[in-house]
Amino acid sequence: MLPSAISAPNGAVIVHSNDEILHVTDAAISLFNTDSRESLRGTSIRDYVATSDYEALADQFNRIEAGSTSALGLTITITDSTGYSREVVTLSSPVKWDGQDHIQTLCIDVDSKLAASELVTNTMETSPIGISIADAQRDDLPLIYVNDGFVEITGYSREEVLGRNCRFLQGDNTRPEPVAKIRSAIKNEEAVTVELRNYRKDGSMFWNRLSIQPVTSDEGDVTHFLGYQEDISAQKTYEQEQALFEMQADAVEKSLFITDAVGRIEYVNTQFEQTTGYSADEVLGQTPRILKSGAQDEAFYQELWETITAGEVWEATITNERKSGERYTVEQKIVPVVDDTGEITHFVSIEDDVTEQAFTEEVLAVMSRVLRHNVRNSVNAIQGYAELLEEKMEDPNDRAVLQVIQSQAKNLETISQRSQDIRELFRRRHEHHTLKVGTIVGFVEQQRVRHPEAQIDLSMEVADDREIQNGSLLQIAIDEALENAVVHSDHERPHVAVTVTEAATADRLCIEIADDGPGIPDQEWDVIFDGQETQLAHGTGIGLWMMYWTITALGGTIERSDNEPRGCVITYHIPLGTSNEEEV
C-alpha cells in the first residue's frame, strides 16, 4: 500500500534507500521516461543524477538518515532513459516503507511552466521546511506563496507576508555578505544557497539556510523564484559549541582524544599532536593502538575495553610510543559518553605525560637505595679491616689487609664519582644535542685506549650521518657496557664485539655489545626491569642502572641475551633522526 505521505496526485515521488530505488509513482515513471516501475526498481538515483549534483544530494540523504533534519530541498539535473536532461527541484524527507526507515524524494520539473497552485498540489504545503515563491516579474519580487513550514519557522502569518519582499526577515545583525550574494544571484537569474541570521516575528534570531532557485517559462524567461528556508539554529549552536570546545581543549596541557563507540579516533587536541608526534590527519579514523608500545600485554587492554564498554571510568598509568619510536609514560583516564537512551556513543581519553616525573622518581629512589646499601657495606668492611690492622700491626699479613682497605676505599670513591655522574647526567639531560652515528667509532676507540688488555672489535653497518637525538647520552651507555664486559671478564684477554646496525622495519638504531665473560646474573638484571630495589633484591653496582637510564632517556629499550658459545649480548634499540640526505 502506498503511504499517505506520498499519495499526492501529480507528484513524481521516489521511495529509496541511499543506493536503491524501492518504489516510484506514475509521475516518476513519466519523468524518467521509462515503461514501468520494474525498470526503475533496484536501480540507483545516482544513475540518473548529474555527477556534479550527486555529492550534494547524497549529503542530504545522509543527513536525513542520521535524523538531523526532517526535510531538505535541492535543485539538480537529471537525465532520463532517452538521454534527455532536465532541471528538477527535489524535496526529500524520511518515510516508513515496508516497516523500514527509508527516504522519499519529490521531484518537481522546473523546466515546465510552474504556477503556485501546481507547487501546492505537489505536497509542498505539508513540507516541514519553509517553502516560498516570489514573483520575478513584479517590482521588488513580492511573495505570492508560503507554506505552513515557512509560517512555523518565521512566526508570521500568510496575511502578514504575502505581497512583501522576503527581506523583512533580516535584522541589524544580519551580515551583509550573504545578502549581497543573494542579490547578485537574483540579478543574474542564478541559483544560490547561503546561511544567514534571520529574525522571527517575536524578534528571536534563527539561522536560516536559504536556497533560491529561478523558475523559467517555456520561452526561457524567469517567472518565479522558489525559496527553501531551513532552520539550522541547532546545527549552528552545535558548531559554535564545538569550536568553543576545541579552543578549550587546545588550551589544555594534556593529550586529549575522542573515539567513537568502536574505538576509532574522531578528534585529537593540539597537545596530543605535540606529545605523540602524529598529526590529526594521521590518526583520525585509526584506533589508539597506533600508540601501543608493547609494554602492556593483551590482558591489560582486554580489561581496559571491558571496563569502558561497561560504562565505567578507566584510570591507569601506561607506557605509550611516539611516532618516533620513543616511549613515554602517561596517566590515562578514559570516560564513556552516553546519549539520552543510555547508549555509549563515544569515549574521551585524557592522558597526562608523566615521563619526566616517573623517570626522575625512579632514578632518585634507586640511587638512594643502592648508595645506602653499597656505602654501608664498604664502610663496614673498612672498619672491620681497620680493627684487624690495629690489633695485628706487627703481623706479616698487614700488607694484605692494607690492600683490602685500600680496595674498599677505592670502591667508595668510585661509587661517589658515579653518583656525581648520574646527578650531572639528569640535571643536564635536556641540554644534550644530536649526535652523528659515526661518533660511536670514537667512543669505542676511547675504551680501547683505556683497556689495552682487551680486544674490542667494531662493525659499523649504518650511514655515519644518521642522527641520534640527545645522542651524547649514548656514550655513557656504551662506556658502561664495555667497562662491564672487560672488568668482569675471567679471561686474560677479554674479547668484546660491538655491532651497529639499523632495524629493517623502522628508523631505529641497534647496538649489540657481545662479550665472552661470565655474563650478568639474573638477579642483577631482574632488579633493573622491576624498576626498584627491595630488601631481598639488591643490585651490587650502578653500572647496569646507568645503561638502563641513559637508553631510556633516549627513548629506547635494552635487551640481554646469551652469547655463543659463552658470554652475554647487550642490545640497545634507540630511535634515529632524519639523515641529511632525507632532509634535502
TrEMBL record:
Domain Histidine kinase span(s) in chain numbering: 370-578
GO process terms (BP): regulation of DNA-templated transcription
PAC domain residues: 192-244, 312-366
NCBIfam families in UniProt: sensory_box
Full protein name: PAS domain-containing protein
InterPro entries: HATPase_C_sf (IPR036890), HATPase_dom (IPR003594), His_kinase_dom (IPR005467), HisK_dim/P_dom (IPR003661), HisK_dim/P_sf (IPR036097), PAC (IPR001610), PAS (IPR000014), PAS-assoc_C (IPR000700)
Regions crossing the membrane: none
Keywords recorded for this protein, A-Z: Chromophore, Flavoprotein, FMN, Phosphoprotein
PAS domain sequence ranges: 116-195, 241-287
Coiled-coil region: none
GO molecular function per UniProt: phosphorelay sensor kinase activity
